[in-house]
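Hello forum,

I keep getting stuck at the same step: I have a sequence, I want structure tokens, and every attempt I make locally crashes halfway through. Rather than fight my setup again tonight, could one of you with a working pipeline run this one for me? It's a single chain of 436 residues.
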Amino acid sequence: MTTPVAPTAAERAWSAPTATSPVRGVVTVPGSKSLTNRLLVLAALADGPSTLRAPLRSRDSLLMAAALRALGVGIDDHGDDWAVTPAPLHGPAALDVGNAGTVARFLPAVAALADGVVTMDGDARVRERPLGPLLTALRTLGADIDGDALPITIRGRGMLAGGTVTIDASQSSQLVSGLLLAAPRTRDGVTVVHAGPPVPSAPHLEMTVACLRDAGATVETAPNRWRVEPGPLRGADVTVEPDLSSASAFLAAAVATGGEVRLAGWPPTTTQPGRSTPALLERMGATTSLGPDGLVVRGNPDGIRGVDADLRDNPEVVPAVTALAVLAQTPSRLRGIAHLRVQETDRLRALSEELGLLGADVRETEDGLEITPAPLHAPDRPLDPRADHRLAMAYAVVGLAVPGVTVDDVATVGKTVPDFTARWSALVGGPAAPPP
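Reply #2:
Ran it on my machine without issues. Output:
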């Protein structure tokens, strides 16, 4: 009998298509991961049913839905939508958070509201991602939690006292959001004070506050301070916006090739951090216009300009922008993003090392990356996204201009855009990867 042999990296690799002409087309992207998971939590804690229309169905959101079901919440498919029926939260339950920051950081407070024992764990990488400050804060609010990093055990008593906590959320805004989302269900409400360097991805905190207010919560904000009063949350019928972070790679295709891409469904106003991406692309030489049919990005046929940008408030765009920066005619400096070292992987190191295989000059700094134009060539091995969806998408952008780029483990895009290669192929040409 022949023993099966595991495929090599080269056999698993997806060949990123190279553009032979400027990319032109229309693309849609799935719903926002950040909004989907916030809305799921609030719907689970509401006093009536909710409908989430066009939510993201990807690994992160499916893990959130599965965890809430394990705690007793009803979440049922209604075509493309989810119907959420609240129920008393209870254990015992074992929750798998995968490598999802929103799941790992939003659910401990929810589990503390349950009646019974709840355990939480996930992938090896998520055990290394910052969680301790959130767990310490929850203990101050009355939670009974064993552990300072995953895996953890939460002994829920069916309620949480609430109160005031001080937390250093300089590594992730999700540490604050995880406290605020469950705060209306506490006895006394919750006041969170941030003490430390600036909180990254501040628009995500605006998103959390807006979602809470839309659900009927009373929220007061001041610089580095948030107060949520106790009270009921109402169910809602809400449509999830497209994920503007996932859109960045598709928009970058226009910039990389001097083409034109329209992102259908781009909202006229939004709390998503990706709202600043069009202005950033304009600084790199593109032109953009927003109308009723979506956002149009037109690349400059004369090439890409490097950029000096503080991306603290829009860090998810960093991989795609780094891909454009290695194709640019002038140097770039990306700042305010030291926290990307504790994302799905160390994104700064990964971008430097993997794009370096192409000959790119990408250097880490204390708080970001410096990129200097250099001749590029096909790498001698597939680029490794290191289980990070944004990196896999960024490599596809580089592949438009550099023949011979292949991406190992491209299925990691399932975290946010499960059919990324099919959408990419439809936009730029080339093969879609086979199902994993």
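Residues 1-11 have pLDDT under 50 and may be disordered. If your local run keeps crashing, start a new thread with the error log.
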